[in-house]
Amino acid sequence: MQVNATEFIIVKRDGGEHRAEELGDFFRGYLRGEVKDYHVAAWLMAAYERGLSVAERVALTRVIRESGGRLDLGGIGAPKVDKHSTGGVGDKTSLVLTPLIAAMGACVPMMSGRGLGHTGGTLDKLESIPGIRVQLAVEEVVRILERHGGVFMGQTEEIAPLDRALYALRDVTGTVESVGLITASIIGKKACEDLDGLVLDVKWGRGAFMRTVAEARMLAQSLVETARECGICACALITDMNEPLGQSVGNAVEVEEALMLLRGEKVDERLWEVTLRLAEEMCRAVFDEEGGEKWREKLEGCLRSGRAYERFEEIIAAQGVSWETIRQLPGSLPRAPERVAIRARGSGVVCGIDTYRLGRLLAGLGAGRVRVSDAIDPAIGLYIYKHCGEEVRAGEAVAELCVRGSVETKPFEECFEVGEGPVEERQLIVEEVR
Ligand code: URA
């Protein structure tokens, strides 16, 4: 049906509510090329400013789901479970959870995204492994899941293509931090997967799209309710993102850290805890409703025995990585030629880390995108040596940049806020929304 795109934008600009059919017509018109990127960019800004009602969220979620096909996993006997994060800095948990939960006996079709705004994306991180393919045909996804129980995939022309297009536009139009748009984006693609359970990691804080716990709670409720409207049983954990998760931020450097975790090394307490809590929830969602805690021992055993690591190797081999590259990991990951220390600007305690700015600065160096067409440089990244609450001396290295050529360190140093302390303790996992 012919759409009057301008009228549609004006309705939202003026605070009106769209009917489900109108939303469907507008976005189907977009997929056919009749509605242009500039129309959608304007509508996204109007939707960001005015918000989406519950009915509009559900309608947009369904339009995203129906924009392509669905994964038919009916032939796979194992229960299907996935996890999704609302976006953070240094969050590499998906890289670990996919093989870990697959090794526990579930089927994990991990449909992830690329970096968005200041946050990183699982697909960008994975693509630092030479040879890997994450844009897979549906038949290939099903084949890999049947054999290995897990797969890393993106939205494709076949699955949720509308999310792929909107995601890229939101990234460059300042329209990411919206409860309605995030909800439709996440649930729209997860609803294509034929899931028995979905676990959501809703982040709050200085490095998240939701800056307060109250906003994160609103997003968590919106996600869980919209998932239910689409027939998916979901639960959410609200977790802290006031500082990067783990000891690295970037792409290759995060894969390197994920590999250590997959080998059972507790490199970073916060990263270990968030990963294992999400893993427990995933097991609880599909194996046993009752005691999530009892899974902890089994999950840790799976990591420490090397079973999760082996599963990771099998999955990435099935996605195109040669066994020679796999055997040489992490040595086969790209490395930046220069290492530059980021030094504390005073003595005392790290009182805070401006995680949003850190993410933006790294994206500016090539670890993320500033424009849709930007290519990622997988070798660019940051190792973090000091987290919130740790003591530092003036001039001591708090982090180290992996870069090409020279770089101005002052903006990075300013991200590490040093003061007298004491630093208020924050809860890592704030609450659950079921
Ligand atoms: N992850 C998504 O898939 N979409 C968003 O909008 C934010 C995080």
What best-fitting shape do the alpha-carbon axes yield?
globular
Q: What does the average pLDDT come to? A: 95
Q: What is the domain tally?
A: 3
- Approximately how much beta-strand content do the residues carry? 5-15%
Strand tally, please?
13
| Main pleated sheet | 4 strands, mixed
* Low-pLDDT segments, ≥5 res: none
Give the CATH level 1 class of the largest domain: Alpha Beta
CATH architecture of the largest domain: 3-Layer(aba) Sandwich
Strand order of the biggest β-sheet = 1-4-5-13
Output the helix-strand order: HHHHEHEHHEHHEHEEHHHHHEEHEEEHEE
Based on secondary structure, the structural category is alpha/beta
Cα-atom Rg, whole angstroms? 21 Å
Measured as a percent range, the helix fraction is 40-55%
In the CATH hierarchy, the third-tier topology of the largest domain is known as Pyrimidine Nucleoside Phosphorylase, Chain A, domain 2
Distance N terminus to C terminus?
Answer: 39 Å
**Which kinds of small molecule does this entry bind, naming each only once?**
uracil
CATH level-four homologous superfamily name of the largest domain: Nucleoside phosphorylase/phosphoribosyltransferase catalytic domain
